[in-house]
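Troubleshooting: if your tokenizer reports a length mismatch, compare your output against this known-good record of 296 residues.
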Amino acid sequence: MGIPFDKFDGVIWYDGKLVPWTDATLHVLSHGLHYASAVFEGERAYGGQIFKCTQHSERLKRSANVLDFEIPYSVAEIDAAKRLVLEKNNFTDAYVRPIAWRGSEMMGVSAQTNTIHLAIASWQWPSYFKPEERLKGIRLDLAEYRRPDPKTAPSLAKAAGLYMICTISKHRAERRGFADAMMLDWQGRVAECTGANIFFVKDGVINTPIADCFLNGITRQTVIELARRRGIEVVERRIQPEELSGFSECFITGSAAEVTAVAQIADWHFTPGAITKQLMDDYTAETQPKGSAAAA
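Known-good structure output:
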């Protein structure tokens, strides 16, 4: 087991200033801890540049609005703070985690006057899955928990509370020998994985679930754009579990997972193929800073 995250060296941007890593704390009676009034982003820097930096900051602000609070910093200020954290920690290739939450002024369901805090941390974190797994294909379990009806949860926000069932599902999958789990939606249709969106290939066409009860990931949007640039048809539609036997390839996408092939979901099997490999390569090229040697 590695060093606990609260023991890392470095600095964290906290409410407008840089503080030593171990000093970036909050009170145990913070509303965000007890009532999940917190939103966050997961981002990656490649070659010193944060990929889709502004899009992530904009989504962070939207997520906060969905949870009925306003982050007291502009998108431009959040962008600048993220870049400062990278610079001061001397990182070029790293993970970036902004998080905003309600503070401790009131403890109860209602906390409309609580201070809104924002912190931004960064650390070196490779792809969610090992390089050899990403191309060979990971194995997914089928989660017991389902993505909720969007009328019952703020599904389009990247909100901390929505990940509770993801943690439970991923733990269960890992105990059963899988890398992750695929979740269905509240009506029993294919939704996503615990922290990544999912795609399937059949007859050269990419199929992916409609993102209406889960997050329309920024990596998901990027990969759809990359596929269409290649002239590959992408269809966003309802996908039933019984259709999975008819797909030849499967892959998942996310800032942490990047583009990762899937070889198995429960009893369904797939063979990582040309489309998955092409999009893995295209995504790697897309994330390189423009004008860098790697992008040339």
